Amino acid sequence: MVTSRRPARGRRGFTLIELLVVLAVIALLLALAAPRYFDHIQRSREAVLRENLGVMRDAIDKYHADRGRYPDALSDLVTRRYLRAVPVDPITDSRETWVILPPPAGTATAGGAVYDVRSSAPGTGADGTPFESW
User: Fold this and answer.
1) What global pTM score does this model have?
2) What does the DSSP 8-state code read for residue 35?
3) Confidence band (pLDDT; 50, 70, 90) for 106?
4) At CA 38, angle to CA 31 and CA 88, rounded to 5?
5) Closest to 82 (Cα-Cα) out of 96, 104, 66, 99
6) What angle do CA 129, 71, 74 make, to 5 degrees?
7) 35-67 pLDDT tens trace
8) What are phi and psi of 66, to 5 degrees?
9) Which of 15, 71, 98, 123 is the residue whose CA sits 20 to 30 A from 91?
10) Burial class (CB in 10 A: 0-12, 13-18, 19+), 45
11) Is 54 left (phi over 0), alpha (psi -120 to 50) or beta?
């Protein structure tokens, strides 16, 4: 019994050169896309920070308008249902890093300690201003 082997009618698989070319193209595309991806992530964190600051400042203003005084802590905004929860600072990934600013010295208020809120995140935003000044 003789078995004959027939030659393959086409190539099977890829050559090493073809695989290297494909890997080089993938590496080139990744090198072009990765910086834009990380820049986009940073800009989205900055947008969330601006939105969170705006929401908290609006809640502080509404609390003051309703009660005639500023809240003693950010948690007062949650207990009185002006906020569902204290937002997370997207740059520091923490609820505990907000900087509380008291009312100005000449302001006639009946009490309260939270006049404004800012981020304690180090660094600057894409516009060049420090996060602490937002």
Assistant:
1) 0.77
2) H
3) confident
4) 165
5) 66
6) 55
7) 999 999 999 999 999 999 999 999 999 999 999
8) -75, -40
9) 71
10) middle
11) alpha
